[in-house]
Amino acid sequence: MKIVDIRATTVAVPLEAPLRHSNGAHWGRFIRTIVEVEADNGLVGLGEMGGGGESAEAAFRALVPYLKDHDPFQLETLRFKIANPTASLYNNRTQLLAAVEFACIDLMGQQLGVPACDLLGGRVRDAVPFASYLFFRYPSERHAEIRTPGQLVEHARALKRQHGFTVHKLKGGVFPPDYELECYRALADAFPGDRLRYDPNAVLSLAEGLRFGRAIEGLDNDYLEDPVWGLEGLRAVREQVRVPLATNTVVVNFEQLASNVLRRAADVVLLDTTFWGGIRPCVKAAGVCETFQLGVAVHSSGELGIQLATMLHLGAVLPNLTYAADAHYHQLRDDVIQGGRLAYAGGAIPVPTGPGLGVRLDPDRVARYAELYRELGGYPYDRDPGRPGWYAQVPNERFADPAVSAES
């Protein structure tokens, strides 16, 4: 089996409503680039990358000379062909590598007639549990805004009824820390026995990070994720707060993981199949974490069904995955895969059992959302449509005003 072509299509898939985060917002849609790697036997493997647009499509086309006639089973040589560590200082291809690796694993599974998790060590679970992943959000034509503690709790209740979540993650860093602390405590009061986690995307000052961490010590926390920026900042918080710390921002490669092992700053590493350059590096990293008693979770970078499948196959094979995974997935209105969105059951999503990643593209949906991308274009992830001229600083001091309703 040899690679003969690579095709990339950027799509815009609508969200239920615009999602606010510490650095800006998702403006009512996710922009993702769908990758199809065609082999000489007629099989097509699927990959996915965040963002993109015309530049991503061109970047994937530019990989064809590198990978034409490459055997998809040769994943280690694939890594060096695309993301040689020295060359990558100049071309930054880690996310391109991830999308192609997804597709190659999909091709391998299809060729052998086995699901991807069987190629990664075999499943230890048949379904992966997920957290509810709660956002403050702007209103849409279908949904009201989420700004107050009451609105946040009602949204969490609705998601729990619909999907069965028992872990609730609040994406923060939007409003002043004291206000978000009030919201977090409201969730704890509303869902006794459920687990909680808070993630302000590293925009708190060290003083605010310490104050927030100490204030939640008595709650049922899974962890406090990236309260401040950097390994040194996390170490300072970890030394003074009795809540496990997690990161998805500053342990995203093996050198950073080694640094965290030698001088622990984070107790839990959130593994992202895109940020780490593929599924296999995440499996390797999880093995290091198991050795040194670091917790692991699965990070979400705004997935559609293809990347979600990679997250499910990853979660299926990790014996030390003791935390519910993150996913933006329930915030989507639709997907590009056949059958639409994969369904939650009891707060979990079953691991696909079909060959390879176990999902296939729906051509009509791909065409529809590719056209929507051409119509609407991208959006600036690090800007907020409700605050023209605003941008985030680290640490941030210019938080949104919780008294101002977007619906007024």
UniProtKB/TrEMBL annotation:
Pathway(s) of this molecule: Carbohydrate acid metabolism; D-glucarate degradation; 2,5-dioxopentanoate from D-glucarate: step 1/2
Top-rank EC class of the record's enzyme: lyase
Protein's recorded name: glucarate dehydratase
Mandelate racemase/muconate lactonizing enzyme C-terminal domain mapped to chain residues: 149-244
E.C. numbers: 4.2.1.40
Stored Pfam families: MR_MLE_C, MR_MLE_N
Gene3D superfamilies in the record: Enolase-like C-terminal domain, Enolase-like, N-terminal domain
Catalytic reaction(s) noted: D-glucarate = 5-dehydro-4-deoxy-D-glucarate + H2O
InterPro entries: DgoD-like, Enolase-like_C_sf, Enolase-like_N, Enolase_C-like, Mandelate_racemase_C, Mandelate_racemase_N_dom
SUPFAM superfamilies per UniProt: Enolase C-terminal domain-like, Enolase N-terminal domain-like
Residues annotated as signal peptide: none
